[in-house]
Each structure stands twice: as C-alpha cells, then as structure tokens.
Amino acid sequence: MEHRVKTLTSCQEAFLQVGQSPHVLYVVDQLCQLGGAERAILQILRRLPSERYRASVVTFQIDEQLEELRNFPCPLHVLPLRRTYDLNAVKMAGKLNQLLKSENVSIVHTFFETSDIWAAPIAKWSGTRVLVSSRRDLGILRSRKHNLAYPIVNRLFDRVLAVSEQVRFYCIDHDHIPPEKVLTLYNGVDLDEIGAQAREREEGWRTGIPSGVPIISTVANIRRVKGIDVLLDAAAIVCQKVPVAVFAVAGAILEEQTFAELQEQVAALQLRDNFRFIGKLKNPFPLLRASAAFCLPSRSEGFSNALIEAMACGLPCVATRVGGNGEALEDGKNGYLVTSGDADEMAGRILQLLGDSTLAQRLGQAARETVETRFSMSAMMNRLMSVYDELLATRNASS
Fold first, then answer.
1. Average pLDDT over residues 381-390
2. Domains of the chain
3. Which of 81, 277, 301, 346 is deepest in the core (most CB within 10 A)?
C-alpha cells in the first residue's frame, strides 16, 4: 500500500502553483533514523530557494514516529519497497514514473544504493532531464548486487556529488566515473542555529554526571563501523589518569549485537561509572557545549556531520584518520588525527587536551574558524544551486 504525506507551509504552496520553477525530486532509501545524509537532505529542503526551485521527496520506508516527519518541509511520497526485482517493485516503478511525469520533475537527486540503482533508471526511462547522485561513503554498505549494478547505472548520472575528496577519489578510482563528472560537495552547518540549540535546556543525559567533571563526547549511532569499542579501550587508559572523566555516546542502537558486546566490554573494563550510552538525542548540542573534548573513533567515514558540528561548537576534536576526517581536521592545528583502531594514540591525545586547557581552547577556536570559512550552510547551498543551474542550462542548450 502506498502512503503519502503532505504537510505544506505557505512556502511549499508557492512551489505547487502553476509556475515555471524547476522541480527537484530527492530520492532516499529510508527516513527511519536520521543519519548524516538524511539530515543533510532536510537542511537542503529547508533552504532551497522557493523562487528558483520546488522540491519533493520519495522514500521507500519511514518511521511514522519520527518527529522530523511531522512538519516535513515539502511533499513526501512513500513507495514501499522491500525488493527491487519483485512484482511490487514493478508496481512501485509505475507509481514513480507517474509521479515524475505528473509533477513535471526536472531533476532527480538520489541518495544511497537502492535510490541510485532502482530509481535512477526509472527516472531516465521516464525522460527526466537531469540525474544527480550523492555519494556519502567509501562503499561500506554495498553488497555484491550493488557492485554489479553500479558500473551500469553510473553512466546515467549527469553529476555525482561526493561528500569529501576521499569519496570523490573512490568514485573515480573504484567506480571509474570520469573525473569531470564528480564534484566534492561538503556538508554545511548553520552556526547561528547550532548556537541557539546549544543554549537550550539540557536533557536527561546529565543525570548522574556531577557538574565540573570532564566529559568526552561522541555522537554516533551504535554500529561496529563507528569504532566505539576502540573508544572504550581508550577510555580505560584515560580513566587510569583522570578517574572522574566521563565518556558519553549519543546515538541510536542500530546493531543490537554490537551494543551487547559494548556493554560486556564496559563491564570487563570496569567503566560503568565512566562510560555512558545516552541514546539518541533530539538536540545533541547542549551535550557538546558541556564537553571538554569530542572524539570520533570511526573505522570508516565519508564525511562526518557530527565532527563538523562539534568543531562548530568550538570543541577540541580527536578523530581517526579515515575518509574525509583529514579534510576537516589538520593534525595539531585545529584538532588531532589518530590511527584508526589505535586506542593508545587516541587516549594520549585526549589526555593532552584534558591536561592543557590553553591547548584545548586554541584548537577548539581554530576548529570553529575552519567551519566558518569552509563548511558553512551558505557555501554548501550556493555550490549545490550552481550545479543544478549548470546542468539545466546545459540540457536547455542541447534541446
């Protein structure tokens, strides 16, 4: 059964008037847990200039309890899809084709594997003028099926937007996409919005954490790739020298087995008083504001929203040298980069920050300045709009 959610503000009503603004349809695999890509889509939708573009979203699965769906910034169409090759997939393909034509969609912009592999060919077959794909990682979620399909569907896209230079290199070297087709589009953050959210009242995460103790935070959903087990080993080292230190992990549990193993590790390391899983936070910025340092222990990253948000809060950051982390942090200048999986190196850098407030303040200030100059929301939107404008102009010139 197809679900359709439409919550329109006056701005979106203007989108749907019979005007000439090109229609951008964003296709994303699911809106159940808001990771970096899903939050990036929401930021784009809220800032897309209505006088230039109108927007809508297609997804294949939603969590109807997700608060962000209650005031969604544009029309949202849910096409339930479990497999891409059964009779239901054929039915959903017909519905997507009908939507593309009835809404006169000019640009289809896809996120994640199913959207790339299933939706992009349908959009091409339907006559959509421009296809854009966003790539967010180094292929860690791809299956054998994806690896077989991508060499075919990659040819359909007019532009591929990589979230970091490392992801761009992956698209060129691994996917063999022509370099001129792949652009880097960094995530952007709104510094004013972050400042306002950071001043909001703290949630219940602080319960049991005495005032004045140093908090080392990370914001990551519980998955093995996020390296929380390595952070636990580092925490054991740190707490030998700073027994009152508290490590706080904010994020939803996406892998139950991984979480069970982490809880066993906490018990084995006797860190029950020092290591807290505080769950998903609607607003993580009061936690970041209260932290002495931020640590991102990931085994793999495309480009981390959580890292640049912590940097925007002026936090000194320690992150693994993977993916796009090195494009945000310059080791020793605005934070520290450490080897993935090296708990000793990670702990050493955290101890440096806890033991030298002047150093921590200097690195935190430099981190915020980096965000101001390179990762602002306006910079991201200006670059995205220029991509859309250029591709539509090229299509108009050739038609």
1. 95
2. 3-188+377-398 (3.40.50.2000), 191-374 (3.40.50.2000)
3. 301
